[in-house]
Amino acid sequence: MKKCPPGEYYCNQDKKCKSIPSGYHTARGGFLVRDDYKKNGNGNGGNGGGVSEAIRLAPKTGNIISVNLAWRGNDYNLKMFFPHVKTPSRREVQDQVRKVYPNAKLWNYKVSDYDPGEPLLIGGEKN
């Protein structure tokens, strides 16, 4: 991801740095999110300190893969986006999983449906 000066964010659609609009801020990973949560008495947002809304990303063609893995003695289930029309091979899924969980053991994976509101891991793209 390209670095932008303070007060700006990188727009993937226009491929350039833009000023952060009023009422928004950049979150971890450079995503632009709305500042519409209220503060409670302890300084955290009223919804547990998180951001309540994010902007919609441009639709992309690909597969959402539900992955089951073991890492450091614990089992994990997660969903990952693969920007390919074909179903990824076991090796491709394992390579992507190990970028997040080094030396993880991939138990199984399958193509899954998109559930709005569910967390989804989208890997970075090379330009």
The sequence of SSEs as H and E is: EEEEEEHEE
Rg estimate, integer Å: 17 Å
Relative strand content: 25-35%
User: How would you write the strand order of the largest sheet?
Assistant: 7-5-6-8
Distance between the terminal alpha carbons, to the nearest Å?
9 Å
User: Ranges with pLDDT <50 over ≥5 residues?
Assistant: 38-49
Shape assignment:
elongated
Portion of residues within helices: under 10%
Which structural class do the helices and strands define?
mainly beta
Oligomer: single chain
Overall average pLDDT: 76
The tally of strands reads 8
Number of discrete helical segments: 1
The largest β sheet comes out as: 4 strands, mixed
Q: Could you explain the architecture of this structure?
A:
The strands form 3 sheets. Strands 7-5-6-8 form a 4-stranded mixed sheet, covered by helices on one side. Strands 1-2 form a two-stranded antiparallel ribbon. A two-stranded antiparallel sheet has the order 3-4. It has one helix at 90-100; strands at 8-11, 16-19, 24-26, 32-34, 63-71, 74-82, 105-112, 121-122. It is elongated. A hairpin with a 2-residue loop joins strand 5 and strand 6 (74-82). It is 9% helix and 33% strand. It starts with 7 loop residues before the first strand and ends in a 5-residue tail after the last strand. With 127 residues, it is mainly beta. The protein contains 1 helix and 8 strands; from the N terminus they run ββββββαββ.
